[in-house]
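User:
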Amino acid sequence: MKPYLLSLGAGLLVGVIYSLLNVRSPAPPTIALIGLLGILLGEQIVPLAKRLYAGEAVTAYLREDCAQHVMGRLPGDQDRKA
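Assistant: Predicted structure:
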């Protein structure tokens, strides 16, 4: 969690500096970021549907494989799968 907070803090600091310099951020608009999230989530629909159709449990898949793909490797997860 600490790296996420540090990243957020650095982003806020840069945003304040950009505002003081009166320049626009080169970051993509929110709509593009939402589209990227949609792509990540959409990639999980087919494997999830296959597991549901096969009658397999999906909670472990959502917690392990899906979450790691969408969210990336979370801090404190170093002891788990490499």
